[in-house]
Amino acid sequence: MNKRDEAKVSMYKSVEAHCNANQTIIATSVAFLASFTVFVAKLASLFTNESSAQKQTKGVALDKDALKAILIQAAYDIASVVFAYANKAKNETLKQSVNFSITDLDRLKDEFIVPVCTNIKAAATANLAALADYGVTAAKLTALQTNMDNYAGATPKPRLAKTQKTTDNKNVKAVMKEIDDILKNEMDKTIVVFRAANPNFVTKYTEVRKIVDPGTNGGSEKVKTDTPK
Predict the structure, then answer these.
(1) CA 113, 116, 119, 120: dihedral to nearest 10 degrees?
(2) What's the pLDDT tens digit per position in 81-103?
């Protein structure tokens, strides 16, 4: 939400507060009260969508990065001892299948990290008995699989979060357009019914309907209504 939109939302809140503070007055007009009721509901919807849009996608990305770091460290630890075993056993094929540094694993694209780690786990599983002296156990391989599952589950979340934020922002714009329509074409028109009996209420309404322009050091944008000056 930009500064202009924030200024409009501030105006919405002022209108809501003014009308809520004068419920006995607005209750005398069925038409105005009906429009105000819809206005309040739309405002609640606006805040719901804006709150969702404000959720930080950065936190989701950081969670994924943390899981990635845990995974590649676990995979590297196992790959290293398998490499050492393969070197001693003169098994060049096995040796090259696990020949990854931390940097190699970290540079892999998201979609390749789990497959590479799966291959490392498979290489260790196939030689588990021989790797006992190197500290590789079935429990460590199970832990590696858990790390892979955790990372695989977190991988799409940052993209999904960004997509949701885009949707929420679009919803905010749509709801603000609906609120503006209610104010301009309904409430601003029917406010005149209160002019004779409650002129101060109408004057105050006209004031709170002004949008403080964030680019003019507190200046305001006047809103045209059918209320005479």
Answers:
(1) -90
(2) 999 999 999 999 999 999 999 99
